[in-house]
What does this fold into?
Amino acid sequence: MELELARLAERIEGHLAKLRCFSATVEGVTRLPFTVEARQAIDYLAEAMKQAGMTVRLDASGALIGRYEGQTAQTVVLGSHYDSVPRGGAFDGVAGVVCGLELVRELAVTGRRLPWSLEVVATNDEEGVRFGGGFFSSKAFLGLWQPAQLAAIHDGEGISLAAAMRGFGLEPEQIGQAVWDLTNIRCFIEIHCEQGPVLEQQQQEIGIVSGIVGMRRYAISLQGRPDHAGTTPMTMRTDALALAARLISKAEDTALAYPGAVATVGFCDIRPNVVNTIAGQVVCSLDIRSRWEADIQAMETEILGFIRNLARTRQAGCEVNRTLTVQPVELDRTLQGLLENSCRRRGYAFGHLPSGAGHDALQLATAVATAMVFVPSRQGRSHCPEEYSDSRHLAKAVLAVLDTLENLP
It folds into this structure.
């Protein structure tokens, strides 16, 4: 058993070492959707899936799907995403894809076939950092995209999502072909690094995710007036950056009043961004998350109401566009129970915890039975070059999921 675990961990570690090379930056991993680096990752994963015994296809959303036939057409889907944030880590997303393909390899080397077929999916643009939304493939699986929407969404360089797809060899008009036949999907299971400190602090090897937070994301444009920093009195300024500072402070104060909630302004574009000129415009983000939909709505009302009123008082412009709406979800209790049984039988230290990050599982849980398995993140670090998860923990997650699949009712 120990030798089996060590060999599995070694294969997982080897995949991740190769995948981290497909990056637009030397520091960390930068693999945005529809880029050269994304294509390199797809090509590598496609070959690895074939070697693990799967047939492989690229769907209309840019998701890579490997299939291992079982005794019936009913399908269990495993996987995660292959894109990253800028200068992110080498484990977020791709670790779950690699774990899925290595689970299939465990079956294929002995010719074992489960009562259901298996698909390993590497989803595209889960992070949403290029086009501002996220969960692109998982939304496509559920039929939530129309071709007209893809032409209306643009990245920071003015490239539309539709144009980026065409440059990647995809046809946005065919996005409907990515829709899953949900009648054939038995369940979806995603292995992922925790991206937080809880499992490490509690000395647990496996985290069984109980639910995933809901999210609201906004693009906020604050319009002031650019004036001379030295000759414009403080009482005669319309400083867009001062407004943004108040927004940031209000977001922090509001989130602290709601247990377990978070609010973040993580992006600011300051214009003209000159040392001796008052900011004339600030375009910034606002991200609100909570397990409870009522709290999300209350925070939204409080924070946005505050900044709109303040902008009006200071005779500034304030435009708010919601770019992402995701409802909180609870994950499948039957799957959680099977994962718990496996961890107990194998002697793995485990716990239950919610996910504060959004994942493809968040989208798919609205339509199919879904589970998530977390492994510890060293020092809780993620979305940074320091991100790290032990390959032995990932291997244990694979074996726990394999037990679960073998015992599905």
The first helix runs from residue 2 to 19. The CA atoms of residues 283 and 346 lie 51 Å apart. The mean pLDDT is 97.
